[in-house]
Amino acid sequence: MMLRHIISMKDFSHDEIDIILKRAKDFEPIARGKKSSLLSGKILATLFYEPSTRTRLSFETAMKRLGGEVIDLGSVEKSSVAKGETLADTIRVIGNYADAIVLRHPREGSARMAAQFSNVPILNAGDGAGHHPTQTLLDLYTIMRESSLSNLRIALVGDLKYGRTVHSLAYALSMYHADMTLISPKQLQMPDVIKKDLKKQGASITETTNMEDVLGDIDVLYVTRIQKERFPDPAEYQKVAGIYRVTAELLEKALDNLIIMHPLPRLDEIDPAVDRTKYARYFEQSFYGVPVRMALLAMAMEVA
Questions:
Q1: Binding-site annotation: residue ranges for L-aspartate
Q2: Where is each Aspartate/ornithine carbamoyltransferase Asp/Orn-binding domain found (predicted)?
Q3: Would the pTM of this model clear 0.90, i.e. be above it?
């Protein structure tokens, strides 16, 4: 299986996801330090129009541990973007320098548009409030490694309106027939268009505003921060900031096998005391981004 562009989880089948997850497991020893020259001679370009830590650095780590090189657009303010260069022209140019491009952009749909102008694979690292497919794949891999994707009961908590990670994840979970509980304040509920799509795929969805009520019935608690940067009105953000907080005391109601995930960065939605509990998996989750992105890069560059 080779990949052209990685834009949205809606573009993948269940079987294709399983292949990627299997390949990621093969790459895990290399992610932990085993030497490889699989991508020697290959160049990855990273174009981040928005801030990033884990996504950018895990892509760079994945590429370098596989023996490849990375070129970085750097600060948007110091690039030709500041002179008014269009995304289409930037993609056309960078495609002449690299074998694949990782793109993060604040405008929803930007990655799919970029793919129309690119002569090399585009890997969507987040397009506004749209999709974040490589995050979803590492989330699925985390669940596979730390819990199980079979008969999964999962709660998605927090900003389900603007959170692109949960948008992508929900589409993927529907392929695994997961039982999903959506927990958010009413003003941050999952968009109706996404819920409609999920129900068409036969997904089991329950909505609530109360996190405590479901802790005894779920295998995975997927927590997200409230996306302050997406709010058009700061006053509206203040109304919901800090509305959900996972504490060690709260987890007394949880099942023994519960795992807690978070795409990070976190603000105050998970108390640091939770880090020391058996439930926390968000730092392991951030590591799993490396083998998953290794698999994606190798498949996109048609070497494995």
A1: 83, 164, 225
A2: 151-299
A3: yes
